[in-house]
Amino acid sequence: MPTVPDSLIWTIIMILVVYFGYIVWMGKRGGRHSKSMSGFATARGKVSPVLVGASFATTYSSANLFIGVPGLAYEYGTSVLWYTLGCFGVSWIGLLLFAKTFWRYNKKFGGVSTLPEWLGRRYNSKALQVIVAVLILFNVYYIVGQNVGLATIFESVLNIPYFWGIIIGVGITILYIGLGGAYAQIITDGIQGILMAITSILVFVSLFWTIGGGWNVFGELTKSLGAIDPNLTGFLSVGGPYDSAIAIMAVQFLLFSFVLMPHLLNKVLSLESEEQLAPFTLSAGVVLFFISTLMVLGGLAARVIFPSLASADSAIPAYVIESFPPILAAVIIIGIITAILSSTDSLYLGITSSIGNDFYKVLAPILSKKPIAADALDRNAVKVAKVSLIFAGLATLYISLDRPESLSILIQFSFSAIISGILAPVVLGYFWKKSNGPGAIAAVITGTVLYVIFTNQNIIGNIYLAMFFASVIAFVVMIVTCLATQRVTTSQQESITISKKSS
User: Where are the transmembrane segments (predicted)?
Assistant: First the structure.
């Protein structure tokens, strides 16, 4: 790891102070929009769809694409490009396919605040809503990955101890989300998206002076990697997660499904009208292209410049410090920090919104001895969500203190567990009229439990293959259960369909 000049440290600290002050102010400003559960969770109609789209892209990216995946590229070489190229192409196609129908269902239901509520309304099942809300708690590990990424930046660049880096990151995020809810999160993430795109472009351009070769820069990079280890330039990795054709297919399956993650689909719920879908998806696609495809190149270049780093996750900080003058390095480091915060805030918001909206609002009327008025129930749900934010922060802080071996693998484990459970209920809920609540519940439980068993018991060592097979089995279980319970549920649940006429 190169020595960090004092001028760079103080430049970054000054910019961070201003930036943190801004996002806290934005959080306070957003307080007026987060007094209701819908306002806190989605800020529906309060933010430009272009900013919402940019927020989707930044939330998608996180520490995974800016620290973790470049770290995997440092370790395994060009085979990691299968992941980053799929992030834009496959995931954006998934967004285009799912967004409109998801929004139309939301409109039909009269407006929902979370994915668990969407599924609960779709299948007329409060039990399903609560179960999916429990599943979303897996995002705690996703947040841990973000915390680790942020602390790694603070530690390697600013010489701030890992422990204090965790505390700073958790504290700042909880403060502005607690104050401003979804409004503060979307506005800050939208602005962060612009900075992240600039950061990614700068890293790409830097290859022309760090690697050289002019217009043949990629050929030069491949040649240099091959000189270190020929396995670094293969289409498939050796001993890594991209080691077979079926693993690559499973990666693309994951990336296509990733847009169904609750903290991402919630962005669609922030749109007021169907006309806003076009600028939303276009903005998401443009920003996602830059921030998903270019940053990984820094990880590959870092392997050439620093072939023996102690931690692969330090590849990007090391590369930036070595390759840029202090002022540009400071801008890029800030861009990386904002990339991490942009996912962390959405994840906290998703967890706490589910606790308030899908736990409290569903269970409180059942457990209370006295009737609760609708407006009082909604106000209390917001209070519960904000209080739970503190406990969620403390939980992630505690887990983050034990640094994982691979930031990217931890993050991908957490969201794969969720996708394994929700993929079948969402997809079949779109396209199959016979899908019902019992089938959806069976799929959620089956997919998630099998994924955890496959990975923890090392039955399927590759996390992408584990998610693929767990999801496929969940589809089968849901279809069988739906067919077996049709007579029971037909009289209880009206089939919900969306046609072109409802647009």
Answer: 7-26, 47-68, 80-99, 127-144, 164-184, 191-211, 245-265, 277-306, 326-351, 384-401, 407-432, 439-457, 463-484
Q: What is the full DSSP assignment across 316-354?
A: HHHHHHHHS-HHHHHHHHHHHHHHHHHHHHHHHHHHHHH
The pLDDT score that the predictor gives to residue 474 is 96
First and final C-alpha spacing in the chain: 55
pLDDT of residue 166: 87
What's CA 175's distance to the chain center, in Å?
20
**Cα–Cα distance between 99 and 88 in angstroms, integer?**
16
HEC readout, 381-394: HHHHHHHHHHHHHH
The pLDDT tens digits of the residues spanning 58-100 come to: 888 776 788 888 888 999 989 988 888 888 888 899 899 888 8
Residue 146's nearest CA partner among 394, 337, 335, 354 is: 337
Q: How far apart are CA 448 and CA 41, in angstroms?
A: 25
For residue 458, which amino acid is it? N
- What the chain holds in terms of domains, given with CATH numbers, is 46-417 (1.20.1730.10)
